[in-house]
Amino acid sequence: MSSRKRRPVIAGNWKMNMTPSEAKAFAAELYEKVKGKRGCDIVVCVPAIDIPAVSKVLAGTAIKVGGQNVHFKKSGAYTGEISADMLLDAGAKYVVIGHSERRQYFGETDETVNLRTKAAVEAGLHAIVCVGELLSERESGITTEVVSRQVKLALAGITAEQMNNVIIAYEPVWAIGTGKTATAEQADEVCGIIRNVISGLYGKAVARQTIIQYGGSMNAGNAAELLAMENIDGGLIGGASLKADAFSVIVDAAQ
Ligand code: PGA
User: Fold this and answer.
1) Which residues pair with 236 in a beta bridge?
2) Catalytic pick among 22, 29, 171, 225
3) Fewer CB within 10 Å of terminal CB in the chain, N or C?
4) From the alpha carbon of 13, which atom of ligand 1 is closest?
5) Atom 7 of ligand 1: nearest residue by CA position
């Protein structure tokens, strides 16, 4: 199961940063830094309101655009929400689902993560589904149970074919935005556990091809070591994705 068989996906998660004007300028700067680097897929998951401007700047380039959340209904009385069709029409091809910040602050549950994942892939988006344990869960020795459960619940009803459009991002909550990265071994171990769960659900062939990213304080200094691990096929990068130089070094590390 060599990771060389999977093309890494390096995805920036801008979170709630950058106005549309700032996003436009930053996307142009980013393109200049990473153009010609063809060894991985590159995605920027931006605030929904930035998607049209960023998509316009990056049209015709290898950098794909994503959203950070998607509602599970096609349309209707859901004030403040955004549908998969809206994301696609605005230029997004990817969407982050179930980020720990949404689980922590916005009432996201395993059930809504599952609904959003189904809606995203049914509409033709690539879903980047986030899972990860809290520090207290790691310290209690239940990381495997927690992460396996999150993966199984997120993927309920997703077909083997739809798994082509699903990426799992393993993001230990204690490593997000804290500067505390999981060691490469810790990250690889859990990504391997996730791959085994997928193998149990869909068989070895699907498990072998599924992209499993690591996220949590990945940066220019630690990306190469993390991305060299057998089961880590890319990164979901928050803070370091807001600096074109750092993001470009991470893209280099995935070549
Ligand atoms: P971080 O965020 O890289 O700033 O830790 C990662 C994420 O939340 O996706």
Assistant:
1) 11, 215
2) 171
3) C
4) 9
5) 238
Q: Is the pLDDT of residue 1 over 90?
A: no
Pocket of ligand 1 (CB under 6 A): 13, 171, 176-177, 215-218, 236-240
Work out the percent of the chain whose per-residue pLDDT is above 70: 98
- Sole residue written with tokens 């897929």: 41
3-state secondary structure of 174: helix
Measured CA to CA, the distance from residue 58 to residue 50 in angstroms comes to 12
pLDDT per residue over 196-246, tens digit each? 999 999 999 999 999 999 999 999 999 999 999 999 999 999 999 999 999
Helix 110-123 to helix 143-154 angle, to the nearest 10 degrees? 40
Structure tokens given for 128: 């980047």
pLDDT tens string 38-71: 999 999 999 999 999 999 999 999 999 999 999 9
The vertex-44 CA angle with 118 and 218, nearest 5°, equals 100
Distance 233 CA to ligand 1 centre (A): 16
pTM for this prediction: 0.97
Which one of 236, 242, 247, 250 would you pick to mutate in the ligand 1 pocket, going by the greatest count of ligand atoms within 8 A of its CB? 236
What is the distance of C-alpha 4 from the center of its chain? 19
Neighbouring CB atoms inside 10 A of 200's CB total: 13
